[in-house]
From TrEMBL:
TM ranges: none
Alphabetized PANTHER family for the sequence: CYTOCHROME P450, CYTOCHROME P450 12A4, MITOCHONDRIAL-RELATED
Cofactor: heme
Pfam families, A to Z: p450 (PF00067)
InterPro entries documented for this protein: Cyt_P450 (IPR001128), Cyt_P450_CS (IPR017972), Cyt_P450_E_grp-I (IPR002401), Cyt_P450_sf (IPR036396), Cytochrome_P450_monoxygenase (IPR050121)
Domain of life: Bacteria
Record keywords, A-Z: Heme, Iron, Metal-binding, Monooxygenase, Oxidoreductase
Listed name of the protein: Cytochrome P450
Family per similarity comment: Belongs to the cytochrome P450 family.
Length: 461
């Protein structure tokens, strides 16, 4: 039996009076968290404003934390701004309320539903490929954002919904920007009644989201009443939410449908557009990986568009996605857990009220678990001959009972969209280092421009 990894908390940097390490963390969260791992160790205590933090870096400790029962570790609100956007959705719920909401959301993201969404993913990606032209310059993140917005609109609402999609997308973009800024600054600790300019912008964006979501939900409810059935036969996620029932047979409230629909939008759009952007960037730096991708697409697809049945055969495509999620995980830190009375980790008592953190960025780039950790090497994920990676050394979607419900949706969408576009084009990103910005998602800090290069004709089928 392998002995457990010692749990030996080490005092980290003390920081400034009252602020703790907030200035250093806000300036560069990723570098600061790496500094804790490299200069202090796997278990580091440090102050962030009024909060006392324990940061974990070892996969064994992370696995235990993510598997811990909610009576020992609660999930707190992730900032005032985030709560205004997603409401009391499943990712902010606790206890019986969380279990009820999870049961309501699951039907919308089960593997069968994701398989049905796959055709929409490919259709939208093929339409984008038809608009690209050889030699043109594009903003990669913008192109991937518009594409995944269209996919999430169609899979969530069943159609393109016209101007409502544009209004929703613009409001969500503003909200995401303000949430990211709050997570890195003093706004994380300001009381709810403080109305900074950033918070006023956020409230305006959330009001726009509420208005458009309300119209869409009301229209769908009216349609359901007209057909006099709870399930009108639609297969989009909004219909699945409205038709869902908990264990007691109760339907979700209108507010619950709104909150979960917004959460599905954020998870189904932001995560995938970010993962695709980093995948294109990394492929541009690795000609051999790009050549191997082209060979796999030719072998598996033979000139036709991909389907869900091809997903398991696109192994190299999946390895590219997996490696991109390792190097640039869209969610760069797990929502913190707050120790309750009696909480322990690795047999060590944790003081009640302590916030326990773990970061995908830190553990994904640890040389103990990944050889040459900052290099893009999709072959490390080969089923035969790849690297032996400890459990929870790779956890882009979290883990345990509260792992991301939309993980399969994101993985399938990223792989199928990448395959559809890479059949016809490669993107040559302008040379130079791209710095990631740790906000709500881990996105490039500056615009990522690329030249579109045509590689083949339009696929058939």
């Amino acid at each position: 039996m392998v002995p457990p990894i010692p749990f030996l908390p080490v005092a980290g940097p003390r920081g400034l009076p009252f602020l703790g390490n907030l200035p250093a963390f806000g300036k560069g969260p990723l570098a600061f968290l790496e500094h804790l791992r490299d200069d202090f160790g796997d278990v580091v205590t440090w102050p962030l404003g009024p909060a006392r933090i324990i940061s974990l870096a070892h996969p064994e400790h992370i696995a235990e934390l993510l598997a811990a029962h909610e009576r020992d570790y609660a999930t707190p609100d992730i900032g005032w701004a985030f709560g205004r956007l997603v409401g009391r959705s499943v990712i902010r719920s606790q206890g019986a309320d969380w279990r009820r909401k999870r049961s309501l959301v699951q039907p919308a993201v089960r593997p069968r539903q994701v398989s049905m969404y796959a055709a929409t993913m490919v259709e939208c990606a093929a339409a984008l490929a038809d608009r690209w032209q050889d030699g043109t310059r594009i903003d990669v993140l913008r192109e991937m954002t518009l594409l995944t917005q269209r996919i999430v609109v169609r899979t969530l609402f069943g159609n393109d919904i016209g101007d409502q999609a544009r209004v929703l997308a613009e409001a969500m973009t503003v909200a995401g920007r303000e949430i990211g800024a709050e997570l890195r600054g003093i706004g994380l600790f300001l009381p709810p009644w403080v109305r900074t300019p950033a918070r006023r912008r956020l409230l305006e964006a959330v009001a726009a989201v509420d208005t458009e979501m309300g119209r869409l939900i009301d229209a769908r409810v009216i349609d359901a009443r007209a057909t006099r059935t709870q399930d009108d036969g639609r297969e989009d996620a909004l219909s699945r939410l409205l038709a869902a029932r908990d264990e007691a047979g109760r339907p979700p409230t209108r507010t619950e449908v709104r909150d979960e629909a917004v959460t599905l939008w954020v998870g189904g759009h932001e995560t995938t557009s970010t993962a695709l952007t980093w995948s294109w960037y990394l492929l541009s730096t690795a000609p051999n990986a790009r050549t191997r991708l082209a060979a796999e697409l030719e072998r598996v697809l033979a000139g036709r568009l991909p389907t869900i049945d091809d997903y398991e055969q696109l192994t190299w495509t999946q390895q590219i996605v997996r490696e991109a999620l390792r190097l640039y995980p869209p969610g760069w830190m797990i929502p913190p857990r707050v120790a309750q009375k009696g909480a322990v980790l690795a047999g060590t008592p944790i003081p009640a009220g302590t916030m326990v953190w773990c970061s995908q960025w830190v553990t994904h780039r640890d040389p103990r678990w990944f050889r040459d950790p900052t290099s893009f090497r999709p072959e490390r994920w080969d089923a035969d001959g790849g690297e032996a990676v400890p459990q929870h050394a790779w956890f882009p979607f979290g883990g345990g009972r509260r792992s991301c419900l939309g993980a399969r949706f994101a993985l399938v969408e990223t792989a199928l969209v990448l395959a559809t576009l890479a059949q016809r084009f490669q993107l040559d990103v302008a040379e130079g280092d791209i710095t990631p910005l740790a906000g709500l998602q881990l996105q490039p800090a500056t615009r990522l421009h690329a030249t579109v290069r045509a590689t083949s004709a339009r696929p058939g089928g």
